[in-house]
Fold PTS ascorbate transporter subunit IIB.
Amino acid sequence: MKITVVCGNGLGTSLMMEMSIKSIVKDLGVAAEVDHVDLGSAKSTPSDIYVGTSDIAEQLEAQQVSGKIVSLKNMVDKAAMKERLSVALSELGAL
């Protein structure tokens, strides 16, 4: 399972979300590689799940990335992040 966190520049926001997601997948007992990239690199980065804020998620949809897109309204709300990520992981058969 590969999870890619996407933000505009691939720096602060995505790194912060990556750390939260690594903790979440560990808590869920899911073996996943979690990384972060900038929006421009997302389409060329194969992934099962892409995670981004709602504005980034819209742009990922427009780029037609190959994986499932998880849209977050608040990048620091770990409970919502876990809920949305759990749904995506379940849909992909990882949970």
Strands lie at 2-7, 33-38, 49-53, 68-72. Residues 53 and 75 are 6 Å apart (CA to CA). The longest strand covers residues 2-7.
